[in-house]
Amino acid sequence: MDRGIKNSHPRLRKLGPSDGVAWLIVGLLFAAAAVGVFVLTGSVLSALFIGVLVALVATGVVTML
Question: Tens digit of pLDDT for each residue in 9-57?
Fold first, then answer.
C-alpha cells in the first residue's frame, strides 16, 4: 500500500458527543429553520420536515469542516 494513502485522513468524520460546538451549530440551524417555517406557514409538520432537512445538510457541512 502506498504510504501517502495509508497516512491520509478520511474526508468525512463522525460527530461525537464531545463535539459540542458542532452540535450547537446544527441545533441552532434546526431551530431557526423550524421556527421560521412555522411562523410563515403555521404548519408544524412542514416546519419539522424543513428543520430536519436543514439539520441533515448542516451535519454534512460540519463534518466536512
Answer: 666 667 666 778 888 888 999 999 999 999 999 999 999 999 999 999 9
**Domain ranges across the chain:** 22-64
Short-list 60, 65, 59, CA closest to 23: 59
| DSSP states of the chain | --HHHHTPPPS-----TT-HHHHHHHHHHHHHHHHHHHHHH--HHHHHHHHHHHHHHHHHHHHH-
The three cell numbers of residue 59 are 451535519
